[in-house]
């Protein structure tokens, strides 16, 4: 969340306004009293567009701060209940810029994106002012090199002081991005305040989950409210899982195959209840756990299992499924598609137990979609 992203910005020397986080109107009021003068009270949720949703408001007195915080704490923004607000010292902004540093997959490197049309989303800027967005590739070891970086963002129109500050801030963001394994750091707006200083008024940071084991300090930022109980249970079981809104529970081996399976479910007119990669294992315990997570999710009406047997043997998986079935009550139809190593044997095992098994993925998906239609 923004209040956590700010801590990283501070650590890397990026200027941010003074602020503190509160979870009640009283706490917000106390922060205003301490900061004095005009403050901005901001909803802390993992969603953009908080300003437009009424989640960013001005307050001038402790009473006002309490009232405004109370109102924001009752909101739901982007499907998330607001449980915390950030109270920041209000800053007089002369101009709003956009600056981000992100992993650019096409360039296989890190790039900076700058626009002098900040304050609106970069998508809006791209639609309305495509010529005002500058992309600059950064050296993966050294980060932004002064001359070519400044030329790339069109700094000659900004004046030397702003240009120098942008270079320094981008160097900090680059170090943060590389050292903490981020995929995106976005300052929008990065505001020019009276006196010529740049201050980050909003901060969004996305970190690569695969880097988290190396950064316990980032793991501590994890907020249990962000996750459904299904997601927490899956993570504890070591399953790669993402909860979604549909009603077909999916159990697939391999992330790519999982994505393709979800796409095909959509293609045939239904919606997946989740992404789940059970990995290359046919370990019945994992299968049982996966079943229990899918069945515990409200609204799941059928389960689709899609296995491509390479090193994984389909007959092992089939036995795992039967074992799981004997251990837990599965009250919804199951459709299985298996292909690859020992698939003929696997089909025999499953059909012997009265479970429909297919080789063809399209057929299997049409079948499971018919169950939920
Ligand atoms: P978002 O709507 O979720 O991107 O939330 P932001 O943190 O970007 O806040 C929304 C808008 O409020 C920003 O784009 C700024 O224009 C404005 N804003 C927030 N804090 C301040 C401040 O201290 N001073 C000024 N002038 N504007 C602010
Ligand atoms: Mn913003």
Sheet/helix structural class: alpha+beta
Assign the CATH superfamily of the largest domain.
Succinyl-CoA synthetase domains
CATH architecture of the largest domain, please? 3-Layer(aba) Sandwich
CATH topology of the largest domain, by name, is: Rossmann fold
Total number of helices? 13
* Share of residues in helices: 25-40%
Mean pLDDT value: 93
How many β-strand stretches? 18
- The low-pLDDT segments are none
Quote the distance from N terminus to C terminus: 38 Å
Number of structural domains: 3
CATH class of the largest domain: Alpha Beta
Strand content: 25-35%
Bound molecules: guanosine-5'-diphosphate, manganese (II) ion
Biggest β-sheet strands, sense, barrel: 6 strands, antiparallel
Query: Judging from the principal axes of the Cα atoms, what is the shape?
Result: elongated
Report the C-alpha radius of gyration, rounded: 25 Å
Report on the structure:
Helices cover 38% and strands 26% of the residues. By secondary structure, the protein is an alpha+beta fold. It folds into three domains: 18-89, ATP-grasp fold, A domain (Dna Ligase, domain 1); 93-219, ATP-grasp fold, B domain (D-amino Acid Aminotransferase, Chain A, domain 1); 228-372, Succinyl-CoA synthetase domains (Rossmann fold, 3-Layer(aba) Sandwich), CATH 3.40.50. The strands form five sheets. Strands 7, 8, 9, 10, 11 and 12 form a six-stranded antiparallel beta sheet that branches. It has a four-stranded antiparallel beta sheet with strand order 1-6-2-3, covered by helices on one side. Strands 14-16-17-18 form a four-stranded parallel beta sheet, sandwiched between helices. Helix 11 (314-327) links the parallel strand 16 and strand 17 (334-340). Helix 10 crosses helix 11 and helix 11 (314-327) runs parallel beside helix 12 (343-352). Manganese (II) ion (MN) binds next to loops. Guanosine-5'-diphosphate (GDP) binds at residues 17, 40, 42, 48-51, 56, 88, 90-91, 93, 96, 119, 188-189, 201-202.
């Amino acid at each position: 969340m923004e209040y956590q992203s700010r801590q990283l910005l501070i650590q890397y020397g990026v200027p941010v306004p003074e602020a503190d986080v509160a979870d009640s109107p009283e706490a917000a009021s106390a922060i205003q009293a301490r900061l004095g003068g005009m403050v901005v009270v901001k909803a802390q949720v993992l969603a953009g567009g908080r300003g437009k949703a009424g989640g960013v408001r001005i307050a001038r007195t402790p009473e006002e701060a309490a009232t405004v915080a109370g109102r924001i704490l009752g909101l739901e923004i982007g499907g998330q209940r607001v449980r915390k607000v950030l109270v920041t010292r209000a800053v007089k902004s002369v101009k709003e810029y956009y600056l981000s540093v992100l992993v650019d997959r096409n360039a296989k490197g890190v790039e900076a994106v700058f626009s002098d049309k900040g304050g609106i989303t970069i998508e809006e800027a791209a639609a309305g002012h495509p010529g005002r967005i500058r992309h600059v590739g950064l050296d993966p070891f050294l980060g932004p090199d002064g001359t070519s970086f400044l030329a790339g963002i069109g700094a000659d129109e900004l004046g030397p002081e702003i240009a120098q500050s942008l270079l320094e801030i981008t160097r900090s963001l680059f170090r943060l991005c590389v050292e903490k394994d981020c995929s995106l750091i976005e300052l929008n707006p990065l505001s020019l305040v009276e006196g010529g200083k740049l201050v980050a008024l909003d901060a969004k940071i996305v970190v690569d989950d695969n880097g988290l084991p190396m950064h316990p300090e980032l793991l501590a930022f994890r907020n249990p409210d962000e996750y459904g109980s299904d997601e927490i249970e899956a993570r504890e079981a070591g399953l790669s899982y993402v909860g979604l809104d549909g009603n077909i529970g999916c159990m697939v081996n391999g992330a790519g195959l999982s994505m393709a399976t979800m796409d095909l479910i959509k293609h045939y007119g239904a919606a997946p209840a989740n992404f789940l990669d059970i990995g290359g294992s046919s370990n019945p315990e994992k299968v049982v756990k996966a079943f229990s997570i899918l069945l515990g999710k409200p609204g799941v009406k059928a389960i689709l299992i899609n296995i491509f047997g390479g090193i994984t043997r389909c007959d092992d998986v089939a036995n795992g499924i039967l074992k799981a079935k004997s251990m837990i009550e599965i009250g919804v139809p199951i459709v299985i598609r298996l292909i690859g190593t020992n698939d003929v044997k696997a089909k025999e095992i499953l059909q012997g137990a009265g479970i429909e098994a297919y080789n063809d993925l399209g057929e299997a998906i049409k079948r499971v979609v018919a169950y939920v239609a």
